[in-house]
Design goal:
The protein is mainly alpha-helical. The chain has six helices and no strands. The chain starts with a helix and ends with a helix.
Length: 165
């Protein structure tokens, strides 16, 4: 597999992920409300219509399924461009990219941007500085269910690479 291509793909993947996060978070945008810590959600729902945020509710499962499919499409393209030829190569590249984006999301997006940029604050929770700096909440999410979540698109990518090549 082509390492320079993989390095460029990592940068592009992080850029795409950052754009998606900026488009779907903050203010009155509730697309990712289930990804906010529970105390922020509770404060937000005191003044806004409550929507289901539990992991296995229909709306959360639908959103996560759409995310898995979007990640799989992007990752298949990345695996093919990087030269993956087997299930294992496709799987490992996709899982590695998901691990990379999980680390990027946790250590940069959540711990730095989410915690410090007012743009990510939900309306009515702007005063909750301590709640927005919950590092353990985000780290736990990356480890589980994040690592399990990463297995699904990785398996899809591995299968598609195997079928195409």
């Amino acid at each position: 597999m082509n390492m320079p291509v993989i390095m460029i793909e990592m940068l592009v993947f992080a850029l795409l992920f950052t754009v998606m996060c900026f488009k779907t978070s903050g203010g009155n945008n509730m697309v990712q409300i289930e990804n906010y810590p529970p105390d922020i959600q509770e404060e937000y729902f005191k003044t806004h219509k409550r929507i289901p945020t539990a992991p296995l509710t229909k709306s959360v499962v639908v959103k996560k399924s759409i995310a898995i499919l979007c990640f799989a499409v992007i990752l298949v393209i990345m695996a093919l461009l990087a030269g993956a030829k087997t299930f294992t190569q496709g799987f490992l590249l996709a899982f590695g990219m998901m691990a990379w984006i999980g680390a990027y999301d946790t250590f940069f997006m959540d711990w730095v941007l989410f915690a410090n940029m007012k743009r990510f604050r939900l309306e009515g929770t702007e005063h909750m500085d301590k709640a927005y700096h919950q590092k353990w909440f985000h780290l736990k999410g990356m480890l589980f269910p994040g690592s399990v979540f990463a297995l699904i698109p990785a398996a899809i990518v591995g299968l598609i690479v195997m079928l195409i090549r």
